[in-house]
Amino acid sequence: LYPYDAESDEEVSLRASKREINDKLIEQLEERLNRAGIAVEEAYISDLAYSEEIAAAMLRRQQAEAVIAARKSIVNGALQMVESAILGLEKRELIRLDNEVKGKLVSNLLVILCGEDNAKPVLSL
Q: What is the model's pTM?
């Protein structure tokens, strides 16, 4: 038995390993049908049907993977923006940044850039 989708690229699955699945199907059919003198020339799975529960679970998994990929993209973009901002400030010598200030700046910018809500600035008076 093979899973619909594999956890890793090396694992055989119905979705990603069509050639391997077809080869195994032919092998299994030949094993059973050769005794009756029937030769199997070609065999393949053309359609897979799942219960509603399984299909819903598979859809949730795909959606979760899409959310994770989007979050990774957002974080990577935010990191590049933060790095560019710090390098730009240091290059222009607009402000002197020690490690503590850099840490606060990185933290604040990542919260703003990766957050779900729009930033709400707060000024200390």
A: 0.58
